[in-house]
Amino acid sequence: MEQADDFLEESRALHALLESKPDSDFDKVTQFKAWSVNDVLRHLHFWNWMAELQLADEARLETEFEAVAAEGMRAREFGAVDGAAGAQLLKTWWAQAQKTAGVFSSADPKVRLKWVGPSMSARSSITARLMETWAHGQEVYDVLGIDREDADRIRNIAVLGVNTYGWTYLVRKEEPPGPMPFVKLVAPSGAIWTFGEDNEANKIEGSAAEFCQVVTQTRNVQDTSLKVTGPVATDWMSKAQCFAGGRNDPPAPGSRYRIASQ
User: Fold this and answer.
1) Cα 114 to Cα 63, 73, 119, 240, distances in angstroms
2) Distance between CA 105 and CA 143 in Å, rounded?
3) What CA–CA distance (Å, rounded) separates 7 from 3?
4) d(Cα 127, Cα 160) in Å, to the nearest integer?
5) CA-to-CA distance for 54 and 61, rounded, in angstroms?
6) N or C: which end of the chain has fewer CB within 10 A?
7) What are phi and psi of 14, to 5 degrees?
8) Would you give the distance in Å from CA 78 to the centre of its chain?
9) If DSSP states are collapsed to H, E and C, what string results for the chain?
10) Can you give the pLDDT of all 262 residues of the chain as single tens digits?
């Protein structure tokens, strides 16, 4: 699957960012729930492993879900790597990312896989891993004071953002205020991506990377240069959520940004 390759390349980019950093950088506290870089890698590692188990060992997957429920997510993520940190944790995470990508690369994209909630397709599962890697990678780039150079593989995240228009409202027990607005984005390559029916009354235009930041809640829309037109588009961008789980509200304006390098 193309998405498996894209997940691997996004993981490779994060690995390249961190492989030359001292262990002290892994202790830095990010702007996401005060997680350290170590916390981010443990989280990504654990759920990449869970994704592999979807295809490789469903019984073990169910056992691990039970362990998460009993111990708590953060505790289980810590225990799964025996508390590894720094360079050793990076090595462990990267090995698992490659393994997960390999398992999904030859999977039937449409096969249904067990998950915490409803089942999902293999394509959806590895796309979610790409999205999580990119989104959690943002707080790592931010805390290290580095601007990320995105690639067109983020189209997967933009598509996920568009496809979860209804989910944004469902998770809030609200009715969508109207049809999904027209979305016109400029890809990292300069290509133009459009989604939905052309609509001058409600539309979102601008950087694909910034759109992805908003739907993954790594930036408040007010901290982007996206042009948002109309009440439906404005409402959606004020609460967009492309990931599963319970309701999550976007970060407050000005609370997520690239920290100036020291």
Assistant:
1) 12, 18, 5, 26
2) 32
3) 6
4) 8
5) 7
6) C
7) -65, -40
8) 20
9) CHHHHHHHHHHHHHHHHHCCCCHHHHCCECCCCCCEHHHHHHHHHHHHHHHHHHHHCHHHHHHHHHHHHHHCHHHHHHHHCCCCCHHHHHHHHHHHHHHHHHHHHCCCCCCEECCCCCCEEHHHHHHHHHHHHHHHHHHHHHHHCCCCCCCHHHHHHHHHHHHCHHHHHHCCCCCCCCCCCEEEEECCCCCEEEECCCCCCCEEEEEHHHHHHHHCCCCCHHHCCCEEECHHHHHHHCCCCCCCCCCCCCCCCCCCCCCCCC
10) 899 999 999 999 999 999 999 999 999 999 999 999 999 999 999 999 999 999 999 999 999 999 999 999 999 999 999 999 999 999 999 999 999 999 999 999 999 999 987 889 999 999 999 999 999 999 999 999 999 999 999 999 999 999 999 999 999 999 999 999 999 999 999 999 999 999 999 999 999 999 999 999 999 999 999 999 999 999 999 999 999 888 999 999 999 999 986 5
The CA distances from residue 59 to 53, 129, 147, 252, in Å, are 8, 21, 41, 40
Residue that has been written with the tokens 């492309």 in this structure: 242
**Residue found under tokens 């950088």:** 25
Q: Cα(25)–Cα(43) distance, rounded to whole angstroms?
A: 17
Residues in the chain: 262
